[in-house]
């Protein structure tokens, strides 16, 4: 169930009192950038922009005989304030004006305590949901029960629209866990409040009870391009390396893709 903070507004019109309730969904995780980032955001690749009060992440691209991607990967996890069975991850993104690579990658997500990534086997109590981009086209990237692919499943954009360079966009990832034993999980991706990708009718978890161990519990600071395990013997691709800018990360309880 969603929890709401209620704000009651009272107005008097012609001597008659009218009362309306405005609800605001509960924020389970919030990260603003009013100063130099700390904690999981204090990474070498992350730069703080004091004038615009946002951050930039540098994606350095390397290539060897078999692999290509940014290195090192940014992967950290942080608990949200309360476990829940549905939540919306929201943040803002801007591809730098000089961003040139077409390499696909992962761009943040949410997960349970036992999160699964990296082409590892999905257990009955593990799953994850992340935002992906390939050549600046948004997509979902999901690990769930009986997924058809060796790694996560890509759910491509229904529009195929590419995000512009040097322009801010609002990203919202909604996740709803399946009921006990049922195929009714949901994952939806919105860009500027427009639905661009979704998957329904599946199981994130395989438990007979919707227990705390499979509920949404982690914000995933998981962002990188492609995949490369080491820079040893690899070529640095300076012309394909670049910055992406981010601001205002939130995990909100329930279905909140349209909230500011």
From TrEMBL:
Pfam families: Polysacc_lyase_14 (PF21294). The keyword Transmembrane does not apply. It comes from Neiella litorisoli. The lineage of its organism: Bacteria, Pseudomonadati, Pseudomonadota, Gammaproteobacteria, Alteromonadales. Residues 1-21 form the signal peptide. Keywords: Signal. Residues 60-229 form the Polysaccharide lyase domain. This is Polysaccharide lyase 14 domain-containing protein. The keyword Coiled coil does not apply.
């Amino acid at each position: 169930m969603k929890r709401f903070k209620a704000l009651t507004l009272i107005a008097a019109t012609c001597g008659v009192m009218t009362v309306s309730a405005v609800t605001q969904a509960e924020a389970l995780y919030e990260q603003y950038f009013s100063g130099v980032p700390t904690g999981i955001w204090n990474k070498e690749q992350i730069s703080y922009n004091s004038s615009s009060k946002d951050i930039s992440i540098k994606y350095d691209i390397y290539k060897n005989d078999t692999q290509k991607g940014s290195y090192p990967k940014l992967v950290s996890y942080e608990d949200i304030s309360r476990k829940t069975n549905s939540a919306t991850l929201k943040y803002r993104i801007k591809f730098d004006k000089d961003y040139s690579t077409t390499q696909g990658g992962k761009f943040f997500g949410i997960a349970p305590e036992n999160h699964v990534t990296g082409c590892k086997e999905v257990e009955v109590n593990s799953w994850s949901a992340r935002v992906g981009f390939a050549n600046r086209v948004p997509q979902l990237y999901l690990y769930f029960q009986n997924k058809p692919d060796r790694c996560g499943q890509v759910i491509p954009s229904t529009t195929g629209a590419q995000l512009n360079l040097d322009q801010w966009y609002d990203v919202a990832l909604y996740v709803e866990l399946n009921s006990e034993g049922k195929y009714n999980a949901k994952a939806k991706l919105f860009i500027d409040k427009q639905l661009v990708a979704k998957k329904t009718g599946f199981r994130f978890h395989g438990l007979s009870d919707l227990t705390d161990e499979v509920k949404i519990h982690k914000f995933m600071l998981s962002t990188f391009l492609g995949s490369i395990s080491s820079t040893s013997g690899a070529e640095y691709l300076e012309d394909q390396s670049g910055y992406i800018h981010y601001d205002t990360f939130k995990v909100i309880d329930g279905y909140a893709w349209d909230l500011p």
